[in-house]
């Protein structure tokens, strides 16, 4: 797939799935804007991309979201693809004293920032007949762990937001889809230890964890003309975790 001259924003591009997506888009010829809060990590990923625009930004800050869109369009002249990838999970039971604090933090990071950045980017995407890919999770479709209710709710909301915006923007020629990975071997997941990795592996029917590049390859397919008939879809890549749960 070729993305020559396409301009792509990837949030949360300094590590994990977001970094893999940014690197793959760049390798396919795209002009990539990557965002993240950690400048050192962001710079390391930027070195693996060709002439990227790297923006240190916190997606829960509205002015930072405006800056991401404004600087991207100013630097590259347009916007073709938005990848809403940045997100977080914090543990909390509904009975926890900090339940609402965790809920607000997770929802602001995972959902509100995606909604607002999409709102800001949509006019430019309409101009280019571009598309959006939101990174969701199978946790938006089933409950794997009970102590991350806020994360589960945020990803379920991302899925319905995807459908809602896909329906609205279809008449403008803009496609909107989401990808719901199961467990993916990221740096953060590796740090949880062998016991957790084995537990997550056993949750899947294929008894394996995805690599970040696998998710990136799926995202690039959905963002390409090969997927021109796909919008409002939630594509699951979970090595059969949902099937296994059934």
From TrEMBL:
Keywords: Oxidoreductase. GO terms for molecular function: oxidoreductase activity. The keyword Cell cycle does not apply. The keyword Calcium does not apply. It comes from the Eukaryota. It comes from Trichoplusia ni. InterPro entries: NAD(P)-bd_dom_sf, Sc_DH/Rdtase_CS, SDR_fam. This is Uncharacterized protein LOC113505886.
């Amino acid at each position: 797939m070729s993305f020559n001259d396409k301009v792509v924003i990837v949030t949360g591009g300094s590590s994990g799935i977001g970094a893999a997506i940014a690197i793959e888009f760049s390798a396919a010829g795209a002009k990539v804007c990557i965002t993240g809060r950690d400048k050192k990590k962001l710079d390391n990923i930027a070195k693996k991309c060709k002439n990227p625009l790297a923006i240190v930004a916190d997606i829960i800050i509205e002015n930072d979201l405006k800056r991401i869109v404004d600087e991207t369009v100013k630097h590259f002249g347009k916007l073709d693809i938005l990848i809403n990838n940045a997100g977080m999970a914090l543990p909390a039971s509904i009975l926890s004293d900090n339940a609402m604090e965790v809920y607000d933090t997770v929802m602001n990071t995972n959902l509100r920032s995606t909604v607002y950045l999409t709102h800001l980017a949509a006019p430019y995407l309409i101009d280019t007949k571009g598309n959006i890919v939101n990174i969701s999770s199978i946790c938006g479709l089933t409950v794997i762990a009970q102590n991350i209710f806020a994360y589960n709710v945020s990803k379920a909301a991302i899925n319905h937001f995807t459908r809602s915006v896909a329906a609205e923007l279809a008449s403008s020629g803009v496609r909107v889809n989401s990808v719901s990975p199961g467990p993916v071997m990221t740096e953060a997941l590796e740090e949880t230890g062998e016991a957790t990795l084995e537990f997550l592996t056993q949750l899947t029917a294929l008894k394996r964890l995805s690599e970040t590049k696998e998710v990136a390859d799926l995202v690039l397919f959905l963002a390409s003309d090969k997927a021109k008939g796909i919008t409002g879809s939630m594509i699951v890549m979970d090595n059969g975790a949902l099937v296994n749960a059934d």
